[in-house]
């Protein structure tokens, strides 16, 4: 089962924000605003995955795939009402992301209906990026066409590997041929394509990983996310590793695979823009994910979804039945919330920007009002120098002029392997 949610403070039944957050909303009018739509269904649960998703078997009474689109739409209507009641400034959505679970387990017409309702309620910016995740065996030419007609611009396919044995260990239901067909269908419909890959599956050799990277590149996607496998507590895979059925992951193997990722993707024209994300150009970076990493605002709709607006974070009840019950009684589906404290804001700014190829702007960081309020230490030229000397951040980006204070902390390849350690060296005392 998926992991549990943090507790936080209770969310009031009408979903309204604390007064200080309401007062901050007008200052966020120009900040990008995104919508995340969670579709919590999968045909099979992959043994490594702890996302909040349910097979038909483990869904239980009180929720169904059939009624889910209407329930989800009722949260969108609720969200509109919450924002209106606080007189929040009008903000059209710059990105929409349908994730899961497997969004494409729902009929594409239903995804289209949800998207149309989101457009009616919030409006879309011109050139809005509208993505849906999809499992490769759920996409046909017709599905892709309906999604594109509805306004989706991008399909993110969970390819994971090109090696049948590895796909088997991951409990995937698709085969490599499904991926190729899905990419072709997406292309024919005019959708951008992103592929998700996972490295470090137990039993995967370095040559297996090379093969997955090469197959992915040969499909000419616009974007590739290459994640190192994380063994999540409570998953079937974690249990198999504990019992010795599968080998544990190995950090040296993961590092070798990251180096190979950089080599193969780099040679094929994919540049990293976040530690695990690569694209063929700035225009094909994931705008939605970038918004998460640069402290923008987003509403996360669906069971277990997290939202962030103006420093307020909240998260919805996890089970689809509890979620449906809350909304049918006109109550917020919010389970808990927290206002980010200054220390958290500083650390998040540092940690998230450092993972981006655009890096951490030192002057901007040193002047964060939250850093001053917590009397945290600024980043000094001496710290930057020592990180450059250790080969962890780029010398060129750190000091475009003689004064490091004009520079940015941008991770080198070695730095990306040790990103957490670099964060600790930069973090305020
Ligand atoms: C919600 S899933 C993607 C959509 C779709 N359900 C699928 O799997 O094809 C998002 C992505 O997270 C990644 N992911 C999930 N669990 C992971 C784990 N334990 N370690 C690393 N990556 C993981 C996978 O690459 C997956 O494609
Ligand atoms: S299909 Fe995707 S969301 Fe569903 S269990 Fe597998 S990885 Fe998780």
Automatic annotation (TrEMBL):
Residue stretches making up the Radical SAM core domain: 27-271
Entries under CDD domains matching the protein: Radical_SAM
Alphabetized GO MF terms: coproporphyrinogen dehydrogenase activity
Keywords, sorted A to Z: 4Fe-4S, Chaperone, Cytoplasm, Heme, Iron, Iron-sulfur, Metal-binding, Oxidoreductase, S-adenosyl-L-methionine
Location of this chain's protein in the cell: Cytoplasm
Chief location of this protein within or outside the cell: cytoplasm
InterPro entries referenced in this protein's UniProt entry, alphabetically: Aldolase_TIM, Coproporphyrinogen-III_oxidase, Elp3/MiaA/NifB-like_rSAM, HemW-like, rSAM, rSAM_sf
UniProt xrefs under SUPFAM superfamilies: Radical SAM enzymes
Functional description taken from the UniProt entry: Probably acts as a heme chaperone, transferring heme to an unknown acceptor. Binds one molecule of heme per monomer, possibly covalently. Binds 1 [4Fe-4S] cluster. The cluster is coordinated with 3 cysteines and an exchangeable S-adenosyl-L-methionine.
Similarity field: Belongs to the anaerobic coproporphyrinogen-III oxidase family. HemW subfamily.
Protein name per its UniProtKB record: Heme chaperone HemW
Organism lineage string: Bacteria, Bacillati, Actinomycetota, Actinomycetes, Micrococcales
